[in-house]
Amino acid sequence: MIPGSFGYHRPTSVEEAVNLLAQFGDDGRPLAGGHSLIPMMKLRLAAPAHLVDLAAIANLKDIRADGSDIVIGAMTTQHELIGSELLSTKVPILREASLLIADPQVRYVGTVGGNAANGDPGNDMPAIMMCLGATYHVAGKGKRERRVAARDFYKGAYVTALEPGEILTAVRVPVPPDGHGFAYEKLKRKVGDYATAAAAVVLVMSRGKVANCSIGLTNVADTPLWAREAGRILTGSELEEATVKQAIAAAEAITSPASDARGPARYRTKRAGVMLARALARAKERAGDSNPGDSKQGRGLWQSLGLR
Ligand SMILES: Cc1cc2nc3c(=O)[nH]c(=O)nc-3n(C[C@H](O)[C@H](O)[C@H](O)COP(=O)(O)OP(=O)(O)OC[C@H]3O[C@@H](n4cnc5c(N)ncnc54)[C@H](O)[C@@H]3O)c2cc1C
Q1: DSSP H helical segments within 91-146, as ranges?
Q2: What is the number of the ligand 1 atom nearest to the C-alpha of 125?
Q3: Which residue has the CA at smallest separation from atom 39 of ligand 1?
């Protein structure tokens, strides 16, 4: 399939990009890696008259520490996330999840910003970002940069908190405490597929008990989900079977997947529960037990996870 004709623009600064997008209005669309947008254009599900390619904007492409956060430029590719020493050490769930996205060819060009801004419930990064308590930096013409919590960003399938002409410039991730446990479990039909259901877990253990736990779910509703109640149920527990079952029931209760080629709705809901059980077990196995509630960093995570 061949997309309709379109104008191609390659700004070299964020200001130039948002000016172009403001000028084109509904006819313009930002282009990042193109691995979601171009297939949509080929299928004629999207037909923007102008593409504003963000690839030549140098400062959208870096990964840097900023106090207790890591800031990832929107045009950082999934391949670069996987290769980042800083992320592997500080926020290893990002590497684990990126390795489960598509295949190396897609990951060489697909970007963290495109994945997060796309609004497709099948994208993996949104639930991870919700789980981590990340914040998105957003720029628009004539506006001061604003920040939107990932947990407030997703409004419906392909509907986000981005206003017309705005772009996501960076993702800010609070660094979880050293020794935190993490896991991303994704069920897919074959290598390279989107999730039938997936679960992200970040937890901190203290004296044998869960000091805090944050859970994100992928592709089991119109939007990615933050399973707040399930995390709350687990907090203070030793992850004993009965409590885990209760948390899984709470997580399943907030899902509302479509019945589609990946399976009937009920099956996908139950698979989300299974993915969560596996992610919890693996996160617990990986977690050190450092009594983080007493540390400054631990308190920071409690705040960032919204679980104080
Ligand atoms: C075969 C295949 C398998 C895939 N499997 C998976 C998978 O398993 N999991 C997964 O998560 N993804 C998967 N993807 C999607 C892939 O990860 C995409 O690269 C990603 O979803 C979008 O990133 P992109 O940089 O390519 O964005 P683009 O395709 O360029 O853009 C996607 C959308 O976001 C908008 N956009 C892009 N950047 C910005 C920005 N900075 N600010 C505002 N809006 C922006 C665009 O206008 C467009 O609407 C797959 C893709 C393919 C082709």
Answers
A1: 92-98, 104-109, 112-117, 125-132
A2: 11
A3: 114
DSSP H or E segment with residue 265? helix 265-286
Q: What is the pLDDT of residues 36-70, one digit of tens each?
A: 999 999 999 999 999 999 999 999 999 999 999 99
- Residue 278: phi and psi, rounded to 5, are -65, -40
Q: Which tens digit of pLDDT belongs to each residue from 70-123?
A: 999 999 999 999 999 999 999 999 999 999 999 999 999 999 999 999 999 999
Output Rg (C-alpha) for the chain, integer angstroms. Answer: 19
Q: How far apart are CA 36 and CA 84, in angstroms?
A: 23
**8 A C-beta contact, residue 250 and residue 269:** no
Helix (H) or strand (E) holding 281: helix 265-286
Q: Is 121 exposed, middle or buried (0-12, 13-18, 19+ CB in 10 A)?
A: buried
Instruction: Write the burial class of residue 6 (CB in 10 Å: 0-12 exposed, 13-18 middle, 19+ buried).
Output: middle
Residue in this structure with the two tokens 């019945």, named with its chain if needed: 259
Query: Using CA positions, which residue lies closest to atom 52 of ligand 1?
Result: 35
| Sequence-separated contacts (24+) of 53-58 with Cβ below 8 Å | 53/8, 53/9, 53/10, 53/11, 54/11, 54/17, 54/30, 54/113, 54/167, 55/10, 55/31, 56/10, 56/11, 56/12, 57/11, 57/12, 57/13, 57/14, 57/17, 58/12
Which residue in this structure is represented by tokens 């282009």? 31
Residues 273-299 have a mean pLDDT of 76
How far, in Å, from the CA of 54 to the mean position of ligand 1?
13
Nearest residue (CA) to ligand 1, atom 10: 123
Distance CA(236)–CA(68), nearest Å, equals 25
Cα 137-301-118 angle, rounded to 5 deg:
35
- Residues 258/233, Cβ–Cβ less than 8 Å: no
